[in-house]
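Thread: Newbie trying to understand structure tokens

Hi all, I'm a second-year student working on a class project, and my supervisor (Dr. K.) asked me to get a predicted structure for one chain before our next meeting. I've only ever worked with sequences, so writing a 3D structure as a token string is new to me. If someone could post the tokens and maybe explain what I'm looking at, I'd be very grateful. Here's the chain:
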Amino acid sequence: MRALLLSAILMGASGTMAMACGPDTDCTLGDRHYRIALPEGYDGATPVPALVFAHGYRGSAQGVMRNGSLRRMASEMGVALIAAKSKDDDWVIPNAPRHMETDGAEEFDYFEAMLEDATDRFAIDESRIVASGFSAGGMMVWNLACSMSDRFAGFIPISGTFWLEPPETCAGPVASIIHIHGTSDRTVPLNGRPIGPTHQGEVSAALEMYRDYGKFEPLAQATYGDLECSEEDNLAGDTLKFCLFEGGHSFRTEFVRFGWEQLKKVGRL
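---
Reply by user tm_fold:
Sure, no problem. This is what the structure looks like when written as tokens:
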């Protein structure tokens, strides 16, 4: 079934492959889309790394592209910014409100099709693609880390985790994850909160599951500016970092830059 869904998305996109798309124009994938901003000086031939960013609840690819700070940061780093877009108001992921029975396949197929389309249209280094997102987008990123780790060099979820509880285990190779969260977040609290028929998961539960999955061991406690981080690694050289900042449910571009630099530090970029 998942293969059929992915095929349908790609077939729907085939008629638009030659059409221009970018930060102000949708890159169409059937009934879905994404937007992309290329770094200044992009020559269309030299492969560049990419940051795939998942928006929050009721967000949009257009909204991500309106974040001038994020756009500038990506361009300064020589990175293509790819703004993913949920089909409706929110991502269709396991245990989310209105999507309690899903296994997430619809979104995983979309992200697979988006990556294939973007790397076909543009010179993007497929070995250096990172997924990040804020709030509900951070929840989407945790699901990608658990189900599509082979397609990304690392993950930077910000203020979001699994709904209800993490899966018992993950699929694919172990990845590097930099999780960033506010200590006084009331929208997505560290211990979660009930919403409708479900409950936001506990960040500690997601970290514990992934720690066991990746065989991570404590490494150090470190301070990076406003971030207080617990750091773990494994024998394969992957990193699992849990970084807290004093504050609530807020996004800062420097969080993404920090996560990117940490992934470079351990040789994932």
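A couple of things are worth pointing out once you decode it. Confidence is low (pLDDT under 50) at residues 11-18. The longest helix spans residues 105-121. Feel free to ask follow-ups in this thread.
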